[in-house]
């Protein structure tokens, strides 16, 4: 089992920045693909970014490219999402996820953290 706990959400104005953190515990963190997903009201959950266990392979959704940065610190069992130039469309509950492969990155989920961007 892997337990994931997110933090860092909040209310920010358009153009502002937030940094989300996700602390993992349980099974070997280093071998897992980590990801950030989000779900806005009335919409399906969507992937925001993913990062391989080594950090060498990173994926971003088109909607966040150039604004968001995913990173991980395996020594601290943590993954981060730096979000800059935030827009109202970024408002959502953000979830940390983990899995042994890209296809199964949704094997484990955190409880979510709310990000609200005001216009």
What topology does this entry show?
Blueprint: E1 2-7, E2 10-13, E3 18-26, E4 33-39, E5 46-51, E6 58-60, E7 68-73, E8 78-83, E9 92-99, E10 108-109, E11 113-118
Parallel strand pairs: 2-11
Antiparallel strand pairs: 1-3, 3-8, 4-5, 4-9, 5-6, 7-8, 9-10, 9-11
Folded structure, characterized:
Helix content is 0%, strand content 53%. The strands form 2 sheets. Strands 2, 4, 5, 6, 9, 10 and 11 form a 7-stranded mixed beta sheet that branches. It has 119 residues and is mainly β. The protein starts with a strand and ends with a strand. The chain contains no helices and 11 strands.
Basic shape: globular
Please write the string of helix (H) and strand (E) elements: EEEEEEEEEEE
Spans of 5+ residues with little confidence (pLDDT < 50)? Answer: none
So how many helices?
0
Radius of gyration: 13 Å
Intertermini distance: 40 Å
Helix content: under 10%
Would you report the number of β strands? 11
Which structural class do you get from the secondary structure elements? Answer: mainly beta
Q: The biggest beta sheet, please?
A: 7 strands, mixed
Strand content: over 45%
In round numbers, the mean pLDDT is 94
Summarize this entry quickly.
The chain has 119 residues and is an all-beta fold. The chain has strands at 2-7, 10-13, 18-26, 33-39, 46-51, 58-60, 68-73, 78-83, 92-99, 108-109, 113-118.
């Amino acid at each position: 089992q892997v337990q994931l706990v997110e933090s860092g959400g909040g209310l920010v104005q358009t153009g502002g920045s937030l940094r989300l953190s996700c602390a993992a515990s349980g099974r070997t963190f280093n071998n897992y693909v980590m990801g950030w997903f989000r779900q806005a009201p009335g919409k399906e959950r969507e992937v925001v970014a993913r990062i391989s266990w080594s950090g060498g392979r990173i994926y971003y959704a088109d909607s966040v490219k150039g604004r968001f940065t995913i990173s991980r610190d395996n020594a601290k069992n943590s993954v981060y999402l730096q979000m800059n130039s935030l827009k109202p469309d970024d408002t959502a509950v953000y979830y940390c996820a983990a899995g042994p492969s890209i296809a199964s990155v949704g094997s484990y989920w955190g409880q979510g953290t709310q990000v609200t961007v005001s216009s």
